[in-house]
Amino acid sequence: MAEVAMNKDFETLFQQLLAQPLGMKNSHFTPINTDGGHSPMLGGGLCTTLNDYIHFLDMIYHQGIYQGQQILSAATIKVMQADQVKGAIIPPDNYIAKALGQAHNGIYGLGEWRELVDQQTGEAYQISSPGWAGAYPWINKRDRVYGFFITHVVGSSAKEDGFSSFYGSPIISRTVSETISGH
């Protein structure tokens, strides 16, 4: 839709609208070559560095502003972090339940998991976007901390002891939040 609306390919849009303004000099989307064309692999296809991705998290944390420049509107950030499923029935063994022991149905934002939610306001105060391969970017607005973990698990031995980097990463973020905030 973005390509049609802007009459530009996705990678060009990503570079012009996000990567360049955020100083993400080493970031691009992995292409999927279909009939000679360039279709980006949006789910899990971002090739980036830790420093580049921290710029992105910084912008999200600061309501769309990065180094004094409005990259995304605060309204866009609010929509991204809003409950996008509106009370849909979520299986009890979902990511939020397994990873954090939380029981709420508003787990999906746009491109973000709504991990921890204020029960009175319904607003997410911890968001993330974990990858199955061990990437875990997160923002905890309540404790005013954000970061990015990459865990690497080698071979099948990773599953023999039950460890999952996907489900284990939120434990690391909770430890960091508790350490920084003194909880």
Automatic annotation (TrEMBL):
<dbReference type="InterPro" id="IPR012338">
    <property type="entry name" value="Beta-lactam/transpept-like"/>
</dbReference>
<protein>
    <submittedName>
        <fullName>Beta-lactamase</fullName>
    </submittedName>
</protein>
<dbReference type="InterPro" id="IPR050789">
    <property type="entry name" value="Diverse_Enzym_Activities"/>
</dbReference>
